[in-house]
Specification:
The complex is a heterodimer of chains A (about 180) and B (about 100). By secondary structure, chain A is an alpha+beta fold. Chain A is about 20% helix and about 30% strand. In chain A, the strands form three sheets. A five-stranded antiparallel β-sheet of chain A has the order 1-2-3-4-5, covered by helices on one side. Chain A has a two-stranded antiparallel ribbon with strand order 6-9. In chain B, strands 1, 2, 3, 4 and 5 form a five-stranded mixed β-sheet that branches. Classes of the chains: A alpha+beta (about 180), B alpha+beta (about 100).
């Protein structure tokens, strides 16, 4: 299996922006509840809608990193915004038991698993949204079939975000894993 | 409600198919009310220059129902019974844990 390598930053940034533009212009991002927050040319935070079984609507934020895009899918992590004492704001990884970590059943209609603290081969520990449209899936030694593998020119960030929207829809999605102030 | 491609004077219906892996403009397929759903599916695959794979998914966005399971229905009957607005979402196979 090929080991992912970073893309040319200028090419990655331009491709990432174009695909996000398209997703928010005519894809699912054009529907209610979606929002895009660009942090820099290679990193964006996306607000995704979530729907519980009783129709209650929530929302979550994922941070996308395009350092390897679009030879490889974006990096993805659930995040939330922290306001620091000096008045600055910082997007930090969400944790289970918080409002910003979804309680979901790992059965969105495709193979999926959500890990808070996965130990990667290089020793670092971090989130793993385990499906074949995240970079972390390939960095964690998974080897998809040919029909499942990310393909440049076919898959875009739309594939990643629409699968996550399915994760955040009932019956797979249950609700936040914590209270609003957590 | 499904859109009539010819307004009040024609009979063709419009099926809107979003390829959610690519994420671009949707593909529009126009067909008469007696057209089998399988024919719509075949036209879509022709338009994206692909053949169906076992792990492809094609769903009615409004109901979430699998379109392939209704391949034998006629378009108008399908719209009436399963997917009134005839807007579909297509995705290819996805691997995971």
């Amino acid at each position: 299996m090929t080991t992912p390598a970073p893309a040319d930053p200028e090419v990655a940034a331009a491709t990432f922006a174009a695909h996000l533009d398209r997703f928010f212009r005519c894809g699912r991002g054009a529907t209610a509840g979606w929002e895009r927050i660009d942090l820099d040319a290679l990193i964006a935070v996306i607000r995704l809608p979530a729907v519980r079984g009783d129709g209650t609507r929530d929302h979550y934020f994922v941070r996308l990193g395009a350092e390897y895009y679009d030879l490889w899918p974006p990096r993805v992590a659930f995040v939330h915004l922290v306001r620091q004492e000096e008045g600055t704001e910082l997007w930090v990884d969400a944790s289970p038991g918080s409002r910003w970590w979804p309680n979901q059943q790992n059965s969105p209609g495709f193979s999926f698993r959500l890990h808070e603290a996965y130990q990667y081969g290089d020793g670092h520990v971090g989130q793993l949204l385990c499906f074949s449209h995240t970079l972390e899936y390939y960095l964690s030694g998974h080897n998809p079939s040919d029909t499942e593998r990310w393909r440049q020119g076919v898959h875009t960030v739309s594939a990643t975000l629409t699968r996550l929207a399915d994760v955040l829809t009932a019956p797979n999605y249950v609700g936040p894993s914590g209270d609003p102030d957590t | 409600m499904a859109r009539d491609a010819h307004g009040d004077h024609g009979h063709d219906l419009e099926v809107t198919i979003h390829d959610e892996d690519v994420g671009g403009d949707p593909i529009l397929v126009h067909a008469g009310p007696g057209t089998p759903i399988q024919t719509i599916i075949d036209r879509f695959y022709h338009d994206i220059n692909a053949s169906r794979q076992a792990d492809d998914r094609l769903r009615c966005i409004g109901s979430g129902a699998d379109v392939f399971a209704h391949a034998g229905l006629h378009l108008a009957d399908y719209a009436e019974s399963s997917c009134a607005d005839l807007v579909w979402a297509f995705t290819r196979g996805t691997g995971g844990a």
